[in-house]
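Final report, results section. Input specification for complex C-07:
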Amino acid sequence: MPIQYYIFLCLTLFSIGIIGVLTRRNAIIVFMCVELMLNAVNLLLVAFSKMHHGAAATVDAATTAGIDGQLFVFFIMVVAAAEVSVGLAIIVMMFRNIHSVDINFLNRLKN
Amino acid sequence: MQDMSKLVYLVPLFPLLGFLINGLGRKSLSKSLISIVGSGVMLIAFFISIGVFFDVKANGATVVELFPFIHADTIQIPFAFQADQLSAVFLLIITGIGFLIHLYSAAYMHEEDTQHYGRYFAYLNLFVFSMLLLVLGSNYVIMFIGWEGVGLCSYLLIGYWFKNTQYNYAAKKAFVMNRIGDLGFLLAVFWILYKIGTVTYTDVFANVAQLSSFDITAITMLLFVGAMGKSAQIPLYTWLPDAMAGPTPVSALIHAATMVTAGIYMIARSNILYTLAPATQTVVAVVGLATAIFAATIALKQNDIKKVLAYSTVSQLGYMFLGLGVGAYTGAVFHVMTHAFFKALLFLGAGSVIHAMHHEQDIRKMGGLKKALPITHMTFLLGCLAIAGIPPFSGFFSKDEILMAAYNSNPLYYYLGLGGALMTSFYMFRLYAMTFLGSFRGTHEQQHHLHESPSAMTLPLIVLALLSVIGGFVGIPEVFASNAHSLEHFLAPVFAESAKLAHPHHLEASQEYLMMGISTALIIGIIVWAVNRFKKYTDEGQENSGLARVLENKWYIDELYDAVIVKPLHHFSAFLKNVVEKSGIDGLVNGAGKLVGYGSRQLRLLQSGQVGSYILVMVMAMVVFVLIWFNDHTIMNFLKKLF
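Structure output:
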């Protein structure tokens, strides 16, 4: 499959994520949109990694070029997992306190 | 008296010492001690002055350099005193008459509190000290120090009774008027320093050739502006009559021995510059003559005994400037001297009258004081005769010398000057007749308390009366006896350079006799008329009208100055305060604050608390950064690759 497909898919997913973050008020949904953006990036990294590696392998079958992109994906997943745990904890605490997960209730810091 | 001139610095030192003792100890010293210190230092200074005078007479001028005063690169201004003929004459006048005035003050001011009594004597000593500094300095800077010193002391003494607001205004007026003149003087000194590089008299006068005629004219004009302020000439004369707010001996000191003679001294000192600037000389003569006549007209209608004398001083100073303007420097100095005698006498006599009348100064409420105050009356009469110019009293010789020189320069000066002299004799004898002749017009209580002043006051009167009578004999004109003008011979070295440049043409002896005879006859006629008219004076309280009223109100000059200078200045200040200050400067400063406040309020709206909007801004910012970071070419290439 040409690389463009992956790029378009990633752009679409990332854009959906951004729009979700910007427009939705439910904290859980916002959270999911953030995950969506992260995973869009992951997908892109894997796609580019595969592309570079494939191109390099035609010259030298034993090359490791391009696989570092896949390594980054693991890091991002770890970070995302940590973030999810912290974020969900915040959301749980928020729900306990104000009985809502609407992020617009979180404007108390204003003034 | 050998080498006495080397001790000339002691002359100002003693009054300074007196100032320090009386000034610092005014709360602890007793009145008698204060007056002994105050007058004693003057007496010592007077004795030293006599020694200096004879030394100068025998051995000529000396310069005593005390210490370097200003020492900057090529500019060397030493703190040095110059004892020469001119300063020796002034020394004698200042310390001699100063001493008599101190002595007189000791009795006159006796009612004051001890503390104020001490303050008074301290100021008086400081005044004399400043004046001595002025006449002794060997360069214009030292003269300027003294010049400012007398300005300050006149302010302090005119405002001596500082609880009276009117008196404070008079003091401020004197100070401000003098300040205008001082600016001219200061500019002239800078000009001299710039062009010649030194301010020491001898060097400046030796190098006048370096100055262009424009420089000389400008310098002399600026110096004359200074003299106008200090010596009360049109247009800066209005402070002097108001200076009457001070105690009477102070008026005597200001008018006779110190302060107002400073301008004359300065021009006489710079005589060579003036001789080389004929344009300035004309201005000096015209201003002097105008002042002489103008002030005399005002004096005709004044009813305050001190005001009459004050305007008379302004008028006499005008004569001195007329003398300076026509090149009769000796005549001017001579008139300073004789004027010092009779004006001090008249002021102290007036003080004696005021003392007897319990601080009444209005001559309409006096009259017939002849019997009660015999010594004051006699001495006052002699003073009046001297100022009117009756031969052989001192005023005759000096005024005659000036008027003759004026005639040689321009006959018109002479006729106008003579007119002024006639007015002088009229107002002086009007004053005399209204005060001493006729019947008493005061209250019964005043009449009951009329008394002759104590001897500390009458003694100076007698001494001064004697001097007023015989003082003129040091300057007997050429026409009476050749080489009898001893003052002229004495002062000749000071005016030598000017004399070389002058082209005196003497009148025929017969014509000079004729002029003297006519003027004396006219003056005597005026005196007889004035005395006859005013000895029968009764206070009918009639209002003056027409010209008399204008004269009584001093030509409305104060009102004119008020309307032309003071009021517009007030309006301008109000404009600056209300418009420029409030809306301009305050507006700018407050505006800067308001702008920041307004900007902050607008920026604060960005902090909405809406997480969504924050993120939106963040995303947009990132997009913008990306667009900037990778220029459009790269992006276009990337997009082309994609599609």
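Chain A touches chain B through 15 residues (CB under 8 Å). The helical segments of chain A are 3-23, 27-57, 68-98. This concludes the modelling results for the funded period.
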